[in-house]
Design goal:
Distance between the termini: 11 Å
Number of strands: 5
Low-confidence stretches: 1-7
Order of helices and strands: HHEEEHEE
Number of helices: 3
């Protein structure tokens, strides 16, 4: 398999779409998008938007197999979860915690390949943290998720 074959098989858009479809299954998520602009007014919160953050190519000399037929890339995919505004800080924390638990449930279902339903994703790990999401002149409670994905 040549480097060009790998690039045609594993596209960032496809990775983001696969992650979007998987995260959309989390309880409490009303809308999911990939590489999209968050709509004004955000009527269907909570929503998750998935996008590529960074990609690190391993180059032509770093290969997974002795024969050199497989090249790896490491991709960070971001998922921004925007939650509805709450009346108090405590209410916001409670909702963030609930949605974080629901996302963990989804990640824990990914026990074997193909992870996220995509053949190119060979390994992954994740982290998430509470966040305040600024959109226009408003601030929303949210969650920033980062997936560390190895492709080959």
């Amino acid at each position: 398999m040549t480097h060009q074959d790998v690039r045609e098989r594993v596209r960032l858009k496809d990775i983001c779409d696969a992650v979007k479809q998987t995260l959309a299954a989390a309880d409490g998520i009303n809308r999911a998008g990939a590489n999209e602009t968050i709509p004004d007014g955000t009527p269907d919160l909570p929503l998750v938007n998935v996008f590529p953050q960074t990609i690190e190519g391993r180059g032509r000399t770093d290969r997974t197999t002795f024969g050199g037929g497989v090249r790896q890339n490491d991709v960070e995919v971001g998922a921004r979860v925007v939650l509805p505004p709450k009346g108090s800080f405590g209410e916001a924390i409670a909702l963030q915690t609930e949605i974080m638990d629901n996302l963990i449930d989804v990640f824990e279902t990914q026990t074997e390949q193909p992870f996220f339903g995509h053949q190119g994703i060979k390994t992954f790990r994740w982290k998430m943290e509470r966040a305040t999401i600024k959109h226009g002149d408003r601030e929303y409670p949210g969650i920033e998720v980062t997936l560390f994905i190895t492709l080959f």
